[in-house]
Design brief:
The complex is a heterodimer of chains A (591) and B (205). Chain A has 591 residues and is α/β, with parallel strands linked by helices. Chain A has 3 domains: 13-184, 3-Layer(aba) Sandwich (Dimethylsulfoxide Reductase, domain 2); 190-380, Rossmann fold (3-Layer(aba) Sandwich); 445-586, Beta Barrel (Barwin-like endoglucanases), CATH 2.40.40.20. Chain A is built from 25 helices and 23 strands. In chain A, strands 19-21-20-23-18-22 form a 6-stranded mixed sheet. In chain A, strands 3-2-1-5-6 form a 5-stranded parallel sheet, sandwiched between helices. Chain A has a 3-stranded parallel sheet with strand order 9-10-11, with no helix packed on it. In chain A, helix 21 (421-425) links the parallel strand 16 (412-414) and strand 17 (431-433). In chain A, helix 5 packs antiparallel against helix 8 (116-123), helix 5 packs across helix 9 and helix 14 crosses helix 16. Chain A is globular and about 70 Å long. Chain B has 205 residues and is of the alpha+beta class. Chain B has 2 domains: 5-101 and 150-203, Alpha-Beta Plaits (2-Layer Sandwich), CATH 3.30.70.20; 103-145, no CATH class. Chain B contains 6 helices and 8 strands; from the N terminus they run βαββαββαβαβαβα. Chain B has helices spanning 18-29, 59-63, 88-92, 106-111, 167-171, 182-203; strands spanning 5-8, 39-43, 46-50, 69-72, 75-78, 99-103, 150-154, 177-180. Chain B has a two-stranded antiparallel sheet with strand order 1-8. In chain B, strands 2-3 form a two-stranded antiparallel ribbon. The longest helix of chain B is centred in the last third of the chain and has 22 residues, at 182-203. Chain B is globular and about 70 Å long. Classes of the chains: A alpha/beta (591), B alpha+beta (205). The interface between A and B is large, with 46 and 41 residues.
């Protein structure tokens, strides 16, 4: 939409080698991407400057030269404020914009109102810090932006991403070593899953299903008719089930009962399904509600390739055999397709599947043979032929992959309670944001959510590891010391967090990591899963839910009350079922 | 020779907790308490793991009534099999580097008195939530207790059983942790003395 692709534009080692300024926004890089944080630290020791925008005192915020502690949800206010300063002080790269971007006039008008004084008024960020950050970023020879879920998980996440891209484009920070816009992907192969068309609207290589030309290419390769309509996105599934449009659901590599916002709504939907199939390596909270569970192989038990956050495709090789009847995902899909009478699923190994991809989408992966991947430590797509060395840096020379070949600068407007209609009408297709649920008298705190370093997502795997459980044995909610004093709660007390969707009991961690009137907790623990509380409003474009903001009430509770709530959750997530299955399996019973 | 110790550089620590998990694994493998002997601590001033400084005149050694804590190999070591779990060392330590932590006797585990559900992690000591009484204790947290649990003093032992040295130092992705040897301190002090002498001497009129 803005630059032409959905991936890191540059590679990770460039940060430590070339970046003069690193701007981290909405990413707890130290805890969630420690290996990338390592490159940031190396850059700092080389003399690079670090700007961090985060409401939480993450470890990177602590190390930042400038820490912009904005309130939760105000990314656009801040980014527009930075661009306001850059444009007012003429720190932008006029030549680069002239040659390689469209929409600068719209953008200039959109950020006009976001003066340092206005930004300070809305966010509390001092004008001095804002101006210093803008000068630092725009004045750098090479500046890179790292962002993560703290940018995207809002109802206006697309707008924030567009703003990030605007900022990089107007300062010419694209297409050179150490520059770029870098969305950090949270999972080893989430980039790969998207690359392979694991999205409802695209084929492998991000080729749209609505485009007849692309459809024809895949119809020819697969010798079948393909539907022209995009599928449902995850947050849309529950409603579709309720409306009777979806009767069967096949879930693999995902635990939506824990990870979907307002999960009570989702659990009700699952119960209405005629068929729920779950394919996973463990009996997850979702699998316990399934009619059929298919045992899958884990990462060390299969062949293939992973594509990491910097578009680098790397081979993965089997270290051990899968236990029992567990099979790799591709094998299960092929076997199932054959049983259903489908043709073209007669693959013998992952190399055959990979070679088919190389033939059908050669512009991205044509040159990445298994033989080459075995020799080098991965290749970055696009890599169209076997002589091609891969593409570590996208958009070199300002050549963007949009239809016009130029970057689109989008007007993005934001106000927590909404932007006036008249203002919106002044722009052509602006992206407009507001917060879905603001605190009020009853739900007086802002709840924001995320991950901790020691647990991974819904804890399916990490909670089975003793060392990790010893580091992070239980759910904790971060509460600012000022708020704790007012609420008369101490570190280690239990509180009940209540939103309009549900309630959980959590242990309190009194810490400066969160600003006043804001609390933070995670979705790692079934006994206190924050996704019982989150709102299910989504971004209209990407349909990513607003995990990062909800209004919440905090009440101190006794230990007995906390225990009662935990036991209630144990029944809800049918924890005893996993216990029974594990006991049966230990007796030698096989699935 | 001065005692050795592990110390972190807060400018390099990214708070990723890798050291803590490594510590648990390393000690579990040799049959010692599976509990992290260093604790990543977040403050406004900075983040770093806190662990035993292996003091020369260690107060923990002085208060131990059964001589379970001794100074040997240029370090302060707890013999977990001798420790009676009186917790005085934890109270005396100025850094909070000693944690009384224990395991439940296997019999109690098997009966399942404490863990009603699989994968409820074994709570950290003291975590009375899953305890039988279901009551919080009025005692100081260090003195709190659970039925059937034998707690012993757990602290950094510099992985003395491993020739490769402290596992946390090796696992740190940003090399924020380092082992300071007694010799290092002497050498550093000597260097600083030279520096101080040069500076003073060159400023003399």
């Amino acid at each position: 939409m803005t630059l032409g692709g959905g991936a890191m534009t540059n590679t990770i080692p460039e940060i430590s080698q070339y970046s003069d300024v690193v701007f981290i926004i909405g990413s707890n890089t130290g805890e969630c991407h420690p290996l990338i944080a390592k490159h940031v630290i190396q850059a700092q020791s080389r003399g690079a400057k670090l700007i961090v925008a985060d409401p939480r005192m993450t470890d990177m915020a602590n190390k930042a030269d400038i820490w912009l502690r904005l309130p939760v949800g105000h990314n656009i206010t801040l980014l527009n404020g930075l661009m306001h300063v850059i444009i007012k002080e003429k720190l932008y790269k006029a030549e680069f914009i002239q040659e390689h971007a469209d929409g600068f006039d719209d953008l200039t008008r959109a950020v006009e109102d976001y003066t340092p004084a206005y930004v300070e008024d809305l966010t509390g960020i001092s004008q001095q810090d804002l101006i210093a950050a803008a000068r630092l970023y725009a004045g750098a020879g090479a500046a890179v932006i790292l962002y993560c879920m703290g940018v995207t998980q809002f109802t206006y996440g697309t707008g924030t991403v567009a703003s990030v891209s605007n900022l990089a484009v107007i300062t010419g920070n694209l297409g050179r070593p150490g520059t770029g816009v870098c969305p950090l992907r949270g999972q080893n192969n989430v980039q790969g899953a998207c690359d392979m068309g694991g999205l409802p609207n695209v084929f492998p290589g991000y080729l749209s299903v609505t485009d007849e030309k692309h459809r024809a290419r895949f119809e020819k390769a697969w010798n079948t008719q393909l539907p022209p309509k995009p599928g449902l996105r995850i947050p849309e599934v529950a409603d579709a089930v309720h409306q009777g449009k979806v009767k069967a659901l096949y879930v693999f590599g995902e635990n939506p009962v824990m990870s979907d916002p307002d999960n009570n709504h989702f659990i009700h939907a699952l119960q209405e399904l005629e068929l729920l199939v779950v394919q996973d390596i463990f009996l997850t909270e979702t699998a316990r509600l399934a009619h059929v569970v298919l045992p899958a192989a884990g990462w060390a038990e299969k062949e293939g390739s992973f594509s990491n956050t910097e578009r680098r495709v790397q081979r993965v090789r089997k270290a051990i055999e899968p236990p029992g009847n567990a099979k790799t995902d591709w094998w299960i899909f092929c076997a199932l397709a054959q049983k259903m009478g489908a043709k073209g699923f007669e693959y013998q190994n992952t190399q055959e599947i990979w070679d088919e991809l190389r033939q059908v989408v050669p512009e991205k992966w044509g040159g990445m043979t298994y033989a080459r991947l075995d020799q080098v430590r991965g290749l970055n797509w696009p890599c169209p032929n076997e002589e091609h060395a891969g593409t570590p840096i996208l958009y070199v020379g300002g050549k963007f992959t949009t239809p016009t070949g130029k970057a689109n600068l989008k007007a993005v407007l934001f106000h927590p309670t909404g932007v006036a209609e008249d203002k919106i009408k002044e722009f052509k297709n602006p992206i407009v944001g507001k917060i879905a649920e603001l605190p009020d008298r009853e739900y007086a705190f802002t709840l924001t959510t995320g991950r901790r370093g020691y647990h991974y997502h819904t804890g399916t795997m990490t909670r089975k590891s003793l060392p990790l459980n010893q580091v992070g044995p239980e759910q904790m909610v971060e509460v600012n010391p000022q708020d704790a004093a007012v609420l008369e709660i101490e570190d280690g007390d239990y509180v009940k967090l209540t939103t309009r969707r549900g309630n959980i009991a959590v242990k309190v961690w009194v810490t400066d990591r969160v600003p006043e009137k804001t609390v933070f907790t995670t979705f790692h623990f079934w006994e206190a899963n924050v996704n019982e509380l989150t709102v299910k409003d989504t971004d209209p474009l990407s349909v990513i839910p607003e995990y990062k903001v909800a209004a919440v009430k905090i009440e101190k509770i006794s230990l007995a009350e906390a225990k009662a709530l935990y036991l209630e959750k144990a029944q809800k997530y049918r924890v005893e079922l996993e216990q029974e299955v594990v006991a049966e399996m230990q007796k030698g019973w096989r699935v | 020779m001065a005692n050795r110790f592990v110390i972190a550089d807060p400018n390099k620590c990214i708070g990723c907790y890798t050291c803590m998990a490594t510590c648990v694994m390393q000690h579990q493998q040799v049959g010692l308490q599976a509990y992290p002997r260093l604790q990543v601590t977040h403050t406004l001033a900075g983040t770093m793991p806190i662990q035993c400084r292996h003091c020369e005149d260690a107060s923990c050694v002085a208060v131990c009534p059964v001589k379970a804590i001794t100074v040997k190999n240029q370090s302060v070591q707890v013999n977990e099999t001798v420790c009676i779990g009186c917790k005085m060392c934890a109270l005396a330590c100025p850094f909070g580097a000693i944690t009384p932590y224990g395991t439940l006797p296997p019999s109690l585990r098997e009966v399942g008195t404490f863990e009603q559900y699989a994968y409820v992690p074994e709570p950290r000591w003291p975590a009375p939530l899953y305890g039988q009484s279901g009551q919080t204790t009025e005692l100081h947290p260090l003195l709190a207790w659970r039925i059937g649990q034998k707690a012993v003093a757990v602290k950094c032992d510099l992985c003395q059983f491993d020739e490769a040295g402290p596992a946390c130092v090796r696992s740190c992705p940003t090399k924020a942790l380092r082992l300071v040897e007694g010799e290092d301190i002497e050498r550093l002090s000597k260097l600083k003395r030279s520096g101080a002498a040069i500076e003073t001497a060159s400023n003399v009129e």
